[in-house]
Amino acid sequence: MSQQRRGLGKGLGALIPTGPIVDGTGAVSPSGGSTQDNGPQPIAGAYFREIALKAITPNPRQPRDFFDEERLEELAASIKEVGLLQPIVVRSIGGGSYELIMGERRWRACQLVGLDPVPAIVRNTQDDDLLRDALIENLQREQLNPLEEAAAYQQLLDDFGATHEQLAQRVGRSRPHISNTLRLLNLPPNVQLTVAAGVISAGHARALLALDDSRAQEYLAKRIVAEGLSVRTVEEIVATGGAKAAGAAPKERSAKRPSMPGLVHLADRLSDHFETKVKVDLGHRKGRIVVEFATIDDLERIISTMAPEAAHAMREGDEVA
Fold this sequence. Notes:
Radius of gyration: 22 Å
Strand order of the largest sheet: 1-5-3-4-2
CATH class of the largest domain: Alpha Beta
CATH topology of the largest domain: Conserved hypothetical protein from pyrococcus furiosus pfu- 392566-001, ParB domain
């Protein structure tokens, strides 16, 4: 089998030590991570390592019993292209074997593409909050590329129950920055590669995200590299509809809705205001606004911003129920 990508960076793996736990208290060897103020600190109860797939068994208490095959294939394709940016989380069960705690979809997808060994966080403590908080603290210290940063944010949200607000406060970033960085994970895998390698900037990548068509994103990304386009130029190309991918089917071109630069600017302003991705579309007869949210808490936050009275009524209804 051809060599599989290990990932462009370590994501959360860059934020924790790589040395093993040395005693029963969960303390780790100080050599596993930097203790300088501007570097990641050792985390009690966890360390990073690569583990063979055959040494990992699924969690028998996994609440999810159905995995969407189509989405699993999509994840596998992404891992094959850029590697596994979000480590799985396991615990040692002795004899060189490990049990999954978090990340069974990632583990299954790695099996599909033959990524072996896989990056993992080996956890010895049962305190999710302790590990989450330590990882957030180290995220503030470690310099990651934009894609690694996005993967770290996403894993903290998915696996460790962090919120956008916690991330923003603890790493000294704004909520729009967190949301915009997370959006980078929606780019096609080969465009993600160019972002992670520093060939195109995060600003370029955010401009590409205004395009709905992945082929158009890929086409314009190639133009950025070949022509040395500035972020402002890319934004103008997107706003004027000049980023259609070469070779697009005629039917798709004729069905393309008219592009209005003002709508792109409006969508950006709404995205900043609501601290999430907002799309504004205008068809031949009517338009629509699409507001994305990550969790129920995030939805309630957005509704509170849009209509405080409605949000208050919703909360009162939940309390009565």
